[in-house]
Amino acid sequence: MEHLWAPWRIGYILDNGKDHGRCFLCDAFLQNDDRKNFILHRTGHSFVIMNRYPYNNGHLLVVPQCHVPDMKSMPLEQLTDLMGCTQEAVNILEQDMTPEAFNIGINIGKAAGAGLPGHLHIQIVPRWNGDTSYISVFDQTRVMPELLEATYERLKPYFEKIRDK
User: Fold this and answer.
1) In the chain, N or C terminus with fewer CB closer than 10 Å?
2) Higher pLDDT pick, 134 / 56
3) Catalytic residue list contains 119
4) Rounded-to-integer distance, Cα 82 and Cα 78, Å
5) pTM, rounded to two decimals
6) What is the 8-class DSSP label of residue 126?
7) Do residues 143 and 57 make contact, with C-beta atoms less than 8 angstroms apart?
8) Cα 115 off chain centre by
9) Confidence at residue 147, expressed as pLDDT on a 0 to 100 scale
10) Domain spanning 8-14+21-164: which CATH class is it, in words?
11) Residue 83: its pLDDT value, please?
């Protein structure tokens, strides 16, 4: 039997299902350490953060700065900014990772699968043919070929170019 070493998963395993009365997205946004929190980009109304427990490399979350549960709770200006950030993030992932496809989605409400139903966010998951293997199906395990920190360092310069425009 082979063992896959994924020490970053232990936080998720130990915390899974616990409600600390806090929003990890708001907490990350309010801190001034984007590198530690894997925040790649900030705008006037949104931010792009890497998923700490990704389905695939490059799994990003595009998040409104305001803590809202759904799109109807957002002014049009903020919603437009959120979608613009989503478009930019997809463009960057296409340039850097050349995925063959994407899953892009919003789960609104716990019944829809929202892991954090109180804070709307858009999930962007780059996909490649064959990225799901037997190990994902039978062992419910994902093999991540790159550390989160390395992916952050690769993607961050692309987002800095957007900011500098």
Assistant:
1) N
2) 56
3) no
4) 6
5) 0.81
6) E
7) no
8) 12
9) 86
10) alpha beta
11) 98
Pick from 70, 79, 67: nearest CA to 23: 67
On whether the CB atoms of residues 161 and 155 are closer than 8 A, the answer is no
**CA separation for the pair 145, 66 (Å, rounded):** 33
- pLDDT higher than 60, residue 25: yes
Helix (H) / strand (E) containing 101: strand 101-105
Go through 16-47 and write b for each residue having 16 or more CB atoms within 10 A of its CB, e for each that does not. Answer: eeeeeeeeebbebbeeeebeebbbbbbbebbb
What's the order of all strands across the beta sheet hosting 39-42? 39-42, 46-50, 60-64, 122-127, 101-105
User: What is the structure's pLDDT at 143?
Assistant: 59
Q: Which two tokens stand for residue 38?
A: 């894997």
Q: Which tokens belong to 163?
A: 């900011």
Residue 158: alpha-carbon gap to chain centroid: 16
Tokens 């994924």, located at residue: 6
39: tokens are 């925040």
Residue 14 has pLDDT above 80, yes or no: no
Where are the domains positioned within the chain?
8-14+21-164
Type of residue numbered 97? M
Lowest mean pLDDT among 18-32, 71-85, 115-129, 134-148: 134-148
Write down the catalytic residue from 41, 45, 119, 121. Answer: 121
